[in-house]
Amino acid sequence: MDTVSLSGKELAAAMNADTRARAVALTENATAPHLALVVANDDPASAWYVNSLRKAADRLGIACDTIDLGPSADAATIRAELSARSEDPGIDGIMLQTPLPAGVTLEEVSSAIAATKDVDGVSPLSLGLLAAGRPGFAPATAAAVVELLDHHEIPLAGRRVVVVGRSNIVGKPLALLLLAKDATVTVGHSRSTDLAAITGSADVVVAAAGRIGLIGGDDIGEGAIVIDVGTNEAPDGAIVGDVDAESVRGRAAALSPVPGGVGPVTTALLMRQVVIAAEVRHSG
Fold this sequence. Notes:
By secondary structure, the protein is an alpha/beta fold. It has two domains: 30-114, Rossmann fold (3-Layer(aba) Sandwich); 140-263, NAD(P)-binding Rossmann-like Domain (Rossmann fold), CATH 3.40.50. It is 42% helix and 15% strand. It contains ten helices and eleven strands. The strands form three sheets. The protein has a six-stranded parallel beta sheet. Strand 5 (160-164), helix 7 and strand 6 (184-188) form a beta-alpha-beta unit. The protein starts with a strand and ends with a helix.
């Protein structure tokens, strides 16, 4: 079986072209969309991602501030910064970069982000709106998976989809987004009994647990669609996913690559959501 590559590059390029046009229109009629990136770590991978976001924002005509609170910032400091940015009328979107300092959880600080500016959909209120089917911003990575599947015209209604991973930023919100597409969704995780049997019966498998080689050819059914959300650093420094791509190719009908699959769509979607937030602000 020839395994089709579900690239996200073409989709991301189209999204970015639309986002740039909308950002230019806003800038001409009011002010440029404005993103605040709040960072409280010294993680090299995080620094690389933040830099890539800043470059993307610059290319698309979005103003971007990076607020570096340092790796020793406590929860109160982070919450205070998020609250201040939420109240700043010149800021349209706020993103809190992870990982956070030891002892600080995303759940305890993200509630300080106003839902209208929570462009990465990480606050409890944003997740609640998603669960209730109300308007709001979904976590960008989770939403990117659905965008990628839609772009490649992979049907979801009535199909069995297994999401491996239950984080609040990918696994759980993705399950809700897939349910909204009428998929039959199972969430697998580290405590699941016989995970391979669960994934092996799925039409679509989404690997989002942050473990290199978590899903291999023996873990999927013949002809399954496999979406790899993982971005892990291999011992040689390469970025690899959660899927053992070599063993999956030839068995899966389609596989999203790492890099070049979900990743570029996630960044493009995040930037689009900043522009949407700006459009809403200026329409009011």
